[in-house]
Amino acid sequence: MRRITRGAAALAVATAAVAAIGTSSAHASDRTVFNCPGGAVCIYPRDADIHSSTPTNVYYSYGAHNLSNQFGNHYVLNNQYGGANATADLCTGYDGVGCGITIEMNYFKKVDLTPINSIVLNRP
Questions:
Q1: 13, 93, 97, 106: least surrounded by Cβ within 10 Å?
Q2: CA–CA gap between residue 22 and residue 25 (Å, rounded)
Q3: Based on the domain organization, do 37 and 26 belong to the same domain?
């Protein structure tokens, strides 16, 4: 009888965990802004209109991401969520070195990416 009770309890916990994961992913998709998915930082094509364009680069994971072939003016949108410290830094060096431009959560900037070689997503 104990095995059945333990098995039922384990199934209930597993079901609750799957439901919670499903809920959080649905929440993320509800935050799409200017075609940038919720929880992401997006870079749009050169000289494109942020209102009607689709991002060319979409970053979800925290930490540094090296850029390549990004020249001229681009919109960069920080659509992360979870706290005021969910910022994105634009850096002149690779691997997040020489950061000087910070984009706060729920903001975007038009930036000349020619001198920018990496973007860092900071954990809230």
A1: 13
A2: 5
A3: no
Q: In which element (H, E) is residue 58 found?
A: strand 57-59
pLDDT tens digits along 43-99? 999 999 999 999 999 999 999 999 999 999 999 999 999 777 899 999 999 999 999
pTM, two decimals, is: 0.75
Return the half-sphere exposure (C-beta side, CA atoms, 13 A cut-off) of residue 80. 23
Its domain, for residue 43, covers: 32-121
Residue 17, classed as helix, strand or coil, is helix
Residues 72 and 15 in one domain: no
Q: Which residues contact 99 (CB under 8 A, 6 or more apart)?
A: 89, 90, 91, 92, 120
Residues 55 and 44: beta-carbon distance below 8 Å: yes
